[in-house]
């Protein structure tokens, strides 16, 4: 059995290439997953399509910022690293919330580890991903009980679909970690799904970077 450290390392290595992949190519990879998902679950496929479309509006093109004469400055998005999506609830609506977060995390440029004990959902996701154009190891699925262990790794975003009590516990664990600050994106209202329906959900999984090009000199300068 592959241990958790190896799983995290595999996703992190896959993310390093994925994060520098052109957005248009990332979008096509996600759409290949969405097409596979449509054969298995039309509702989940529509959730994927919505968040890919919103990401295309928000992230496809860099934003040009003002700068001095002879210099151009562009603001663009990049992934944060490895995102952990924890599916605690077995409710049908929880699958929608999980797919929304998985899609947003991937199209934002992150690798994803899914912690889920819902075997039916896991099989649907595995089938859709394995037959897609996504890079190997970019998405991994592990048991729900492994969530606490993975939160202590260097995951940069935790997406939670579950209870408010678990939300508090995860937030507390993230706050007590050493190293980089981990963000929490949670869906605890499975009746109205406010997080999942947020058209700007993808922005919660990105980091912003600037690209400066001095046209009076040779080379480019990148600032994170």
A few lines on this structure:
The chain has seven helices and nine strands; from the N terminus they run αααβββαβαβαβαβββ.
Average pLDDT taken over every residue? 91
CATH architecture: 3-Layer(aba) Sandwich
Name the CATH class.
Alpha Beta
Distance between the termini: 38 Å
In sequence order, what are the helices and strands, one letter per element?
HHHEEEHEHEHEHEEE
Structural class: alpha/beta
Please summarize the sheet with the most strands. Answer: 5 strands, parallel
| Number of helices, where a helix is a run of at least 4 consecutive DSSP H or I residues | 7
Task: Lay out the secondary structure.
Blueprint: H1 4-18, H2 23-40, H3 42-59, E1 63-65, E2 71-79, E3 82-87, H4 92-107, E4 111-116, H5 119-130, E5 139-142, H6 147-151, E6 157-161, H7 164-175, E7 183-187, E8 206-214, E9 220-223
Could you characterize what this model shows?
The protein has 224 residues and is of the alpha/beta class. It has a single domain, classed as Aldehyde Dehydrogenase, Chain A, domain 1 (3-Layer(aba) Sandwich). It is built from 7 helices and 9 strands. Helix 2 packs across helix 5 (119-130) and helix 3 (42-59) runs parallel beside helix 4 (92-107). One of its GO terms (molecular function) is oxidoreductase activity. Keywords: Oxidoreductase. This is Delta 1-pyrroline-5-carboxylate dehydrogenase domain protein. InterPro entries: Ald_DH/histidinol_DH, Ald_DH_N.
């Amino acid at each position: 059995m592959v241990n958790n450290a190896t799983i995290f390392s595999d996703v992190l290595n896959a993310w390093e290439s994925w994060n520098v992949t052109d957005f248009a190519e990332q979008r096509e990879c996600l759409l290949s997953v969405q097409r596979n998902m449509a054969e298995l679950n039309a509702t989940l496929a529509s959730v994927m399509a919505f968040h890919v479309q919103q990401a295309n509006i928000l992230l496809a093109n860099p934003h040009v910022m003002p700068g001095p004469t002879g210099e151009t400055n562009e603001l663009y998005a990049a992934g944060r690293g490895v995102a952990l999506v924890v599916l605690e609830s077995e409710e049908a609506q929880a699958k929608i919330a999980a797919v929304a977060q998985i899609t947003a995390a991937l199209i934002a440029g992150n690798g994803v580890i899914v912690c889920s004990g819902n075997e039916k959902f896991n099989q649907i996701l595995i089938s859709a991903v394995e037959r897609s154009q996504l890079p190997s190891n970019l998405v991994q699925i592990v048991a729900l009980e492994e969530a606490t262990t993975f939160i202590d790794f260097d995951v940069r975003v935790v997406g939670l679909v579950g209870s408010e009590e678990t939300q508090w516990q995860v937030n507390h664990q993230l706050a007590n970690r050493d190293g980089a600050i981990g963000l929490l994106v949670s869906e605890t209202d499975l009746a109205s799904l406010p997080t999942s329906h947020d058209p700007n959900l993808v922005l919660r999984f990105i980091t912003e970077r600037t690209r400066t090009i001095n046209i009076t000199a040779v080379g480019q300068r990148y600032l994170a």
